[in-house]
Amino acid sequence: MSHLTDINSAYQKLNVRANTLYEFVILYHNYIYAHHTYENEHFNMMEIHTLTYIDDCPGITATELSKLWHKSKSAISQVIKRLVDSGYVEKRFKENNEKSVCLYVTDKGQRLSSVHKAYDVADITQTTSYLIEQCGQADVDAFYRIIDKYNELLKSDLES
């Protein structure tokens, strides 16, 4: 019985911080997949960041995007289909290779990507300023160092 009591006690102590992390992950996930309006168009962050990444890396493939975003090719294909159907992205076959499809933004997609980049600059600047005001620069820097290490840990777990 004492072993079970020890486990429950340790769990209660550790779970307080773990729940804070879980809440952050859930809230951020919901934020990423909520629709935001850019140029009177509604996109979630996954879609708009995919568009911007294609703008920054013309000729990228769905396979490369799926690895970058740690998403299945099927999930990325759905995002790409929406961007293509909306006229923001076009598919082109690689020269001399009709199996490999490369992605490029259209003029319309380039304009939306630029609008999104301006939005992100303002939003990230505002968020960072708020965090520095509330916590200090050193804490914000530590937060990002910890997130980098946490990402490394999660990636290594996914690979094993």
From TrEMBL:
InterPro entries according to UniProt: HTH_MarR-typ (IPR000835), Metal_resp_HTH_trans_reg (IPR052067), WH-like_DNA-bd_sf (IPR036388), WH_DNA-bd_sf (IPR036390)
Domain HTH marR-type, residue spans: 1-152
TM regions (residue ranges): none
Keywords noted in UniProt: DNA-binding, Transcription, Transcription regulation
Transcription in keyword set: yes
Residues of the signal peptide: none
Highest taxon, organism lineage: Bacteria
Name of the protein described by the UniProt record: MarR family transcriptional regulator
Protein's organism: Enterocloster hominis (ex Hitch et al. 2024)
